[in-house]
Amino acid sequence: MSRGWLKAILEAPELAGRIDVVGLVDLDRATAQARADEFGLSGAAIGTDLDAMLAEVKPDLLFDVVVPVARHDVVATGLRHGCHVLSEKPMATSLAAGQDLVKLARDAGRVHAVVQNRRFISGVRRIRRLIESGALGELTALHCDFFIGAHFGGFREEMDNVLLLDMAIHTLDAARFMAGKVPLAVYCLETNPRGSWYANGAAANAIFEFSDDVVFTYRGSWSAEGANTSWESAWRIVGTKGSLLWNGEDQFEAKVVAGDSGFFRELTAIDVPEPADIAQTHGHASVIAEFLGAIEAGRQPETAGNDNIKSLAMVFAAIESAKTRQRVTIAV
């Protein structure tokens, strides 16, 4: 994962010259050295002890690309050394840990944000803009399907609640962002289908209640072979005037009612507007640029921890619902 981050930091036009990579830390020194060599970072310090590295090089920023179980300690260490921190997702492995990070960042007077890079793709920004325009009328529902047979190997295949915690966080955050609504409650059924190569929770079906009587449904699996959806899921957005279909890639179909008679009302196609700011559609690079811009302007970035924790709360409420087989309210 660090390769994608470094590629954006060192090669993206919007980040050119804005960041100097001064150190890389990994539990395995050889891994950090290999990554430095790959990107020509001959001047970067290499180490295995984050606390010692931060004390030595005194950076402004810490990019946290560790496995989830290590996240809290890494972020807390960075904040203690006065760094602004940008983390991989999920923000934390429990809601309490996430809340603690929000408090630590506030007390340190530093920014802690999360790489919710799926927000920063063209399709998601376009849908948000269409919903905000009112072209579909009042939003009533969002539905998405995520089905991919992903053979990662490594830590994911041993994780508990792997789909909800490691992948669905992207989709749930995108739904919350597109809808512009507050998540209130969820009912979720989590399974590990026959033939799954994951230890736990490779599939989930969830119904979320959002504010203003908006419903969001999620159907997903990481062990579904034979008909992969896009990584961004396949979506249906429903409003009082019409609906939008998005395949998660470059296909959009939006239609609204154009007549007032007949069993099926006459429909007309409408355009899905381009993003308001094309610069915000470059994934990791756009997240990092937004992070830097927020620090420079003295504001909170779009994916700041004190906002992202609302998406994390959706995940943990879904996990709790799956365990109890009960509807669970969502509160941060």
From TrEMBL:
Pfam families: GFO_IDH_MocA (PF01408), GFO_IDH_MocA_C3 (PF22725). Residues 16-113 form the Gfo/Idh/MocA-like oxidoreductase N-terminal domain. It comes from the Bacteria. Coiled coil: none annotated. Residues 124-244 form the GFO/IDH/MocA-like oxidoreductase domain. Gene3D superfamilies: Dihydrodipicolinate Reductase, domain 2 (3.30.360.10), NAD(P)-binding Rossmann-like Domain (3.40.50.720). PANTHER family: CONSERVED EXPRESSED OXIDOREDUCTASE (EUROFUNG), OXIDOREDUCTASE. This is Oxidoreductase. It comes from Devosia yakushimensis.
